[in-house]
Amino acid sequence: GPAVPAVPAVAGATLRVPLVTGGDIGYANLDHAASAPCLDAVRSAVDEFLPWYASVHRGAGFASQVSTRLYERTRDVLRRFVDARNGDSVIFTRNTTDAFNLLAKALPRKTSVVVFDSEHHAALLPWRGPNVRRVQLPRTRLAAVSVVDEALAECPQGPRLVVVAGASNVTGELLPVAEIAAVARKHGARVALDAAQLAPHRRISLRELDVDYVALSGHKLYAPFGAGALIGRSDWLRAAEPYLAGGGATKLVTEEAVVWNSGEERHEAGSPNTVGVYALGVACEQLAAHWNAVGSHEAALLERLRKGLASLPGCAELRFFDAPVDRVGTVSFVVDGFEPGWLAAVLSAEYGIGVRDGAFCAHVAARRLIREAGSEGQQAVRVSLGLGSTEEHVDRLLLALRQIVARGARWEYTKADGRWAP
Ligand code: PMP
Question: pTM for this one?
Answer without folding.
Answer: 0.97
